Automatic annotation (TrEMBL):
Residues 65-288 form the RIO kinase domain. Gene3D superfamilies: Phosphorylase Kinase, domain 1, Transferase(Phosphotransferase) domain 1, Winged helix-like DNA-binding domain superfamily/Winged helix DNA-binding domain. Belongs to the protein kinase superfamily. RIO-type Ser/Thr kinase family. It comes from the Archaea. This is non-specific serine/threonine protein kinase. One of its GO terms (molecular function) is metal ion binding. PANTHER family: SER/THR-PROTEIN KINASE RIO2, SERINE_THREONINE-PROTEIN KINASE RIO2. It comes from Halonotius pteroides. GO terms for cellular component: cytosol; preribosome, small subunit precursor.
Amino acid sequence: MVDNIASFFRELEPADFYLLSGIEQGMRFSEWVQREEIPKYAELTAEEVDYRIDRCMRHELIERKTIQYEGYQLTFEGYDALALRTFAERDTFAGIGAPLGVGKESDVYEVQSFRPMALKYHREGYTNFREVQREREYTADRDHVSWLYTARQAAEREFETLEGLYPDVSVPRPVDQNRHAIVMEKLTGAELSHAKLESAQVVGVLDLILREAAAAFEAGYVHADLSEYNIFVDDDGITIFDWPQAVGTDHENARELLARDVENVYDYFCRKYPNETPEAVDLDALAADLVRDEFDSISAYTE
């Protein structure tokens, strides 16, 4: 999506962004913003709104619904464009590069700056809202929670967590955040699920991951979704990423979630490196020592 936006981003005019911002404001109160309400939100005349709607529809930044009345909402491309404009105004980065990863809940792109950085767009909520929309008749519900809110909250939560963890825990360095987007340090190395560790490295890497989980707990956080898909491995060690679902250690289920993270990672190593991973490990005792920051090596927990 972002690469499509980047191709015509410079063609967009200030008033185009007024329209997009106006629709964004209107979506706080209704899933589809009535055409008659847009001039008020966008601070544009009705005639200017008509012109800007045509431009933004042409670039697929907004979409129209004509059930009961004419309504508009942002597409994710439109939301992307608003975040990109804010980053450009802040001089956060100079340009967008190649995609680094595109998934169901986020898209990540390389961005051009004085150091390697990555731009992550959260997509949480969008698919579910589209499915709900297809299955029900349209109503203007002022008590709804939009996909914009869901995605923005995920980005804000992840950015705040990264700020709370960095640099004491090996996570990407947070740089900037706006709406549903985060700018952070670009990771090096390979995702653990794709990495091929040497036999002599297996226990050492597993110990590193568990020590970082202990450090995160000491800093006040539990990842709560730790797996081989959100750990990077390189020559300098490991980095844990994707923290939008993290919980504080004061959460009532924090210790259970930490134990689940430990079990997930341990089970992965047992599957991929069965000959090198210690067997019959007391995971409950291990997780308890992580909480107390008394963990040293997984080899000490074999039963």
